[in-house]
Known about the structure:
Blueprint: E1 2-13, E2 24-40, E3 45-48, E4 51-54, H1 66-81, E5 89-95, E6 98-99, E7 102-103, H2 109-123, H3 130-141, H4 151-158, E8 161-165, H5 169-173, E9 189-193, E10 198-204, H6 211-224, H7 226-249, H8 252-273, H9 280-292, E11 295-298, E12 306-312, H10 319-328, E13 332-334
Parallel strand pairs: 3-5
Antiparallel strand pairs: 1-2, 2-5, 2-8, 3-4, 6-7, 8-9, 10-12, 10-13, 11-12
Amino acid sequence: MIVNHYPGKLFLMGEYAIMESNQPAIIAAVNRTIEASIESSETYYFESKYGILRGEALFENKHPMKQVDAAVKAAHQYLDMKKITRHPFSLKLKSNLEEDNIKFGFGSSGVVIVAVIDSILRFHSVSLTKLELFKLAVIAQHETSDVSSGGDIAACVYGGVIKYERYDTEWLKNNLSLQNIESDWPKLKIESLNFDAYELAVGWTQKQNITKSFTDSVRQQSIVDKQYYVNFLEEAKRATLSFEEALKRENYDLIKKECETYRDIMKKLGIWAEIDIETESLSLLINDAIDVGFASKISGSGGGDCGIAIIEKENPEKMPYLKKKWSKHGILYLDIKVSD
């Protein structure tokens, strides 16, 4: 049996802007994962919390697990392209990205795609590079109706903290052939960053949010008011690149400054797009962390879900005060670490 764990993600910088090509984001893989176990079987078998598929049912495209369907097809198409004989398998997924069907904002659909593709290929003794696995997962995701920025997939594949710049979306629409996983993708950049000097404190507002409804609102408003959107992208890029430089130089004051800057950018974006990005609970979460002396901001699309504080590992003594403040305001502290 082959067993592997595939991490979820948290955005540190670059939210909303990452919807566009050539925009940077800083993303952390986290220790909330999907465990995938695969072994030989006489017939095909798939199992997850969403159900069980046996035999040809896995390939009939009638089941509701569209990410699984797209991932299995992509993996098998890759095996066919490489003239590798397919063998039936039993694949089981167990997730702790959620608890009691509550989503925290760590992502799941992209992680499922990576887990299924990588497990099937490893089962057939195929090992892709990280970049090839990323590209194959992105192509598979395009077969579903839920196409993300790709940042969730990149974080899952690379682990740790990464700088991610989205590929040219128009180019990819015309080049979705599996053969292109070995080609250069215009504008795509993925770089691992050193985060060893820091750790994350993650608070959950106890309210879930559906990211797509918020990103759709921003997209619609960007058509109405193009100039504001262009200015937003420029401001977001400056703050994200400055944050990246601060990480590389281990300049904590600059990290705090750019978290504040991006918080302000997102609050203004919410007003512009008429969406409640920084809710009252998220404001309390962030202000509590700032009061204690930490860098803090929303992680993700806002409207609920999580906020983060970035903490210097050599100065962890204020963490108990932050946990106490969060608890007082109904913020649930989550024991989250950056996953390698």
